[in-house]
Amino acid sequence: MGLARRLGVSRDTVRRWVRSGYVTTRPDEDGHHVIWADAAELRRLRALDRANKAVATPSRLARLRTPHPRPRR
Description:
Blueprint: H1 2-7, H2 11-20, E1 24-27, E2 33-36, H3 39-53, H4 58-64
Antiparallel strand pairs: 1-2
């Protein structure tokens, strides 16, 4: 999983984010999740990982858990 490697988190963490709806995904032809993440989304996910490891306020966690919308083409 490229996203896990790029963020320095485990594949299980990314799978948990997908199940929880913390990342924007779409299925490919084989039914695998394709995860979209631009630079701002990568920053949000890094912050989410740090917040989950530290004490974070519920409102901060709520903001971090909401994926950014994918821009229209």
